[in-house]
């Protein structure tokens, strides 16, 4: 009986220690959102930039991919109709395709009968218009890539200023509070750099997609002009 009574305080102490360890673990194992919010008010514009960049990238990616879809047999159908003198049928083929390349070639078909230079100018202008539509808002990703890291650094600097102000008010340096506060403020810099890198990658991915489409459109435009130069057209 006396042995059981002597073990009670030890069991109680072990239970208290276990609870303390669990509380400390819960405090350290913050979820991502809680960790980001510890970066301070500057995290709000940084997160807004992230969502803006994400929306722009997804929307532009889908648009450019749809515009880049191969029009199976488009050029062959146009060539067949043009050589047969069926310009209306060739224009109808372009309208049914409704892609960037088809709209550009349609503009050239409506100019058939005029000098080749006029047709080339019409195709070139239509191509520039299509490219400008595809590049819409892509530059915003480049802006985000530059602004997000700077916002992160600004948040960290303000945080460090606040830490040293608290040290001055306290009249002494507490290494624990300084290091803990500094790690929290570095969250802003890490978030800004991460979002900036992602925006930079997205910006160049979209630009490469547009450049590939431009090359394809230029190739088809040259083939179309060569078609018009054939005898009997």
Automatic annotation (TrEMBL):
It is found in: Cell membrane; Membrane. Coiled coil: none annotated. Pfam families: MotA_ExbB. GO terms for cellular component: plasma membrane. Residues 98-218 form the MotA/TolQ/ExbB proton channel domain. Its main location: membrane. PANTHER family: PROTEIN TOLQ, TOLQ-RELATED. Belongs to the exbB/tolQ family. This is Biopolymer transporter ExbB. The lineage of its organism: Bacteria, Pseudomonadati, Bacteroidota, Sphingobacteriia, Sphingobacteriales.
């Amino acid at each position: 009986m006396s042995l059981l009574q002597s073990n009670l305080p030890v069991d109680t102490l072990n239970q208290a220690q276990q609870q303390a360890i669990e509380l400390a673990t819960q405090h350290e194992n913050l979820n991502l959102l809680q960790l980001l919010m510890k970066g301070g008010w500057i995290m709000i514009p940084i997160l807004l930039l992230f969502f803006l960049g994400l929306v722009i990238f997804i929307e532009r990616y889908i648009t450019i991919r749809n515009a880049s879809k191969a029009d199976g047999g488009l050029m062959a159908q146009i060539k067949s109709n043009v050589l047969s003198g069926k310009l209306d049928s060739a224009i109808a083929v372009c309208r049914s395709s409704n892609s960037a390349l088809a709209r550009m070639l349609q503009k050239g078909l409506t100019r058939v009968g005029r000098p080749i230079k006029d047709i080339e100018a019409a195709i070139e202008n239509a191509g520039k218009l299509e490219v400008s539509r595809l590049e819409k808002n892509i530059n915003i990703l480049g802006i985000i890539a530059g602004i997000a890291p700077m916002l992160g650094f600004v948040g960290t600097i303000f945080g460090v200023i606040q830490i040293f102000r608290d040290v001055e008010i306290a009249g002494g340096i507490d290494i624990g509070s300084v290091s803990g506060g500094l790690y929290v403020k570095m969250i802003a810099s890490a978030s800004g750099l991460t979002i900036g890198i992602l925006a930079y990658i997205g910006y160049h991915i979209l630009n490469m997609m547009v450049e590939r489409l431009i090359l394809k459109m230029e190739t088809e435009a040259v083939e179309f002009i060569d078609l018009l130069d054939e005898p009997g057209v």
